[in-house]
Structures are given as structure tokens and as C-alpha cells.
Structure to design on (115 residues):
């Protein structure tokens, strides 16, 4: 997914959270399993999504997950490099108390794009 699509989704939810959502936008926002979502059938150019391209994109994608911990009264940040394929496993480790702390931020990046 391109950053342009991500910005549209983020902007749509920002409007939703600020109660400035238009009736047209409201029709696009759905709710399921405790979360708001927007379903996309085509990219911004009107083309249907290509499964192989999306899987290739996901394989290259990593996330820098910043976790805050309070250790002996000192706030410490930990930054984890999490490949896309391991993101659910990483999140589940918080649910199972293997990892603890508060997730502060999740940033998407591509290791190949680093200078």
C-alpha cells in the first residue's frame, strides 16, 4: 500500500475521531471486532490490488516498535526491529506477558531503503 493510501485512511479516521466526519466518509467507516476499519477494493489509480505485489511488499516491510518500561523509577525506551512476518508474534508476546511495557509507537520502514 502506498503512503498516499495510508494518509487517506489516517485522515479519514482523524475526522472520525474529531467528530467532523462527513456523511459520505461515515459510510466508508465500518466497525468490527472492536475496531474501526475502511475496506479498500482498488488503489488510488483505480486498479485492483495484486496479491503477489502486496505479499512482496509485506515481506520487505519491517516495523520499529518503541516500548516504554519503568525500571526502578527510571523510564527507559526499547526499540525493537520487527519483520512484518513476526509482528503478530511480537504483539502476542505482550498478551502472554513474555514481554512487558507500553507500546509507544510503531513505525514502518524498509531496511533496504536505509542510507
Amino acid at each position: 500500500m502506498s503512503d498516499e493510501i495510508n494518509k487517506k485512511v489516517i485522515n479519514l479516521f482523524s475526522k472520525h475521531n474529531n467528530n467532523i466526519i462527513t456523511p459520505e466518509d461515515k459510510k466508508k467507516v465500518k466497525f468490527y471486532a472492536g475496531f474501526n476499519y475502511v475496506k479498500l477494493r482498488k488503489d488510488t489509480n483505480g486498479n485492483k490490488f495484486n496479491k503477489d505485489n502486496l505479499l512482496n511488499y509485506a515481506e520487505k516491510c519491517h516495523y520499529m516498535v518503541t516500548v516504554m518500561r519503568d525500571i526502578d523509577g527510571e523510564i527507559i525506551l526499547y526499540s525493537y526491529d520487527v519483520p512484518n512476518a513476526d509482528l503478530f508474534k511480537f504483539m502476542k508476546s505482550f498478551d502472554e506477558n513474555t514481554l512487558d511495557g507500553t507500546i509507544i509507537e510503531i513505525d514502518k520502514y524498509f531496511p533496504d531503503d536505509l542510507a
In short: The longest strand covers residues 62-71. The beta strands are 29-32, 35-38, 62-71, 74-83, 102-109. The chain is about 35% helix and 30% strand. Residues 20 and 69 are 35 Å apart (CA to CA).
